[in-house]
Amino acid sequence: MTTDITLLSLNAMAVAFIHTVIGPDHYVPFIVMAKARRWSFSRTALITLACGIGHVGSSVVLGLAGYALGATLRRLEWIESFRGEVAAWALIVFGALYAAWGLWRLNRRTLDGHTHDHLIRLHSHDHVHDPKTGEEINLTPWILFAIFVFGPCEPLIPLFIYPAATCGWAGASLVAAAFSLVTICSMMVLVLAARYGLEWLPTQRLARYNHVLAGATIALTGVMIQVLDL
Questions:
Q1: What's the pTM?
Q2: What average pLDDT score do residues 73-83 get?
Q3: Structural domain harbouring 29
Q4: How wide is the angle at C-alpha 194 spanned by C-alphas 106 and 222, nearest 5°?
Q5: Is pLDDT larger for residue 127 or for residue 105?
Q6: For the chain, which terminal residue's Cβ has fewer other Cβ atoms within 10 angstroms, N or C?
Q7: Cα–Cα distance, 66 to 198 (Å, whole number)
Q8: Alpha helix locations (H) across the chain?
Q9: d(Cα 171, Cα 166) in Å, to the nearest integer?
Q10: pLDDT at residue 130 above 70?
Q11: Shortest CA distance to 155 belongs to which of 185, 192, 182?
């Protein structure tokens, strides 16, 4: 490993960590959905891991394809910027719809004020049934996965293109792997630490509003990404 590749890899790792921490879209959706949907610790970890791999993987594929086809860095960055716009709006729309569903869920009450939980589960629109087995398929993780696959890792493209042009595919692959590993690990640590921490907070009084709060928080995260260009 040359000194240049070592420095580039260390730089990629630092950029990946900062990019993840200052981008609330990397962890907030998983934290609030884990709380609202009562995901187990292992399920939260698995969903975060899958979305993290999809998130960085899509940018790596774009970088590989762009470099192989001779696309300019400016062109690739424009594509990533466009993907970022779409992903941010997707978070806003998904969050708003989920919050609206949460409000609808609160309003499904009997005359004595109790929620029709069994009816809500039957009529909820956050799952579909497998046509072969009839089993429920929860759509929420798949929606998050789709959003994160489309969501870009903008800093990765220039970090990938430079070593590809100067050190070849091996150097570019090493830099991309370093960036991806730190991004995914940072997402996992932030999400799981918050997931564990929330277990100790007295949130029982807000439990009935979990879905509304989760959706509103995700939508607000998308707005922050748009307004602050995070």
A1: 0.79
A2: 80
A3: 9-84+145-210
A4: 65
A5: 105
A6: N
A7: 42
A8: 3-22, 28-37, 41-69, 73-107, 117-123, 140-150, 156-198, 210-228
A9: 8
A10: no
A11: 182
Domain membership flag for residue 98: no
Q: Which amino acid is at 40?
A: S
How many Å apart are CA 98 and CA 162, to the nearest integer? 41
Report how far residue 207's alpha carbon sits from residue 153's, in angstroms, rounded to the nearest whole number.
34
88: which 2 tokens? 């941010």
Domain presence at residue 47: yes
Is 200 within 8 Å of 193 (Cβ atoms)? no
Confidence at residue 219, expressed as pLDDT on a 0 to 100 scale: 94
Domain count, the chain: 1
CA distance 198 to 38: 11
Region 56-84 average pLDDT: 80
**CB burial string 189-223: b at 16+ within 10 A, e below:** ebbbebbeeeeeeeeeeeeebbbbbbbbbbbbbbe
Tokens of 91: 């978070």
| 124-128, 157-161, 208-212: least confidently modelled range | 124-128
Q: Is residue 173 part of a domain?
A: yes
Query: CA gyration radius for the chain?
Result: 20
Q: If you average pLDDT over every residue of the chain, what do you get?
A: 80
